[in-house]
Write a structure and sequence with these properties.
By secondary structure, the chain is mostly helical. Helices cover 91% and strands 0% of the residues. It starts with a helix and ends with a helix. This is CsbD family protein.
Length: 64
């Protein structure tokens, strides 16, 4: 995934955090839960991207 995908993941993570906080401030448990889910989904995609990058680095190390 390139820069755009990484940027989208970061935007989703920040949006999830904002939604989670807003839900907490307004005592809206549904919004808070949706924000937490959105934030954790973005973190999971980011972790997957880190694994992909690490695998690519290992492959490059062996092909040199």
């Amino acid at each position: 995934m390139g820069f755009t995908g990484k940027a989208k993941n970061k935007v989703q993570q920040v949006a999830g955090a904002a939604r989670k906080r807003l839900g907490g401030a307004t005592h809206n448990e549904r919004m808070r839960g949706e924000g937490a889910t959105q934030q954790s989904d973005a973190r999971a995609r980011q972790a997957g991207e880190h694994l992909t990058d690490a695998g690519r680095d290992v492959k490059d190390a062996f092909t040199r």
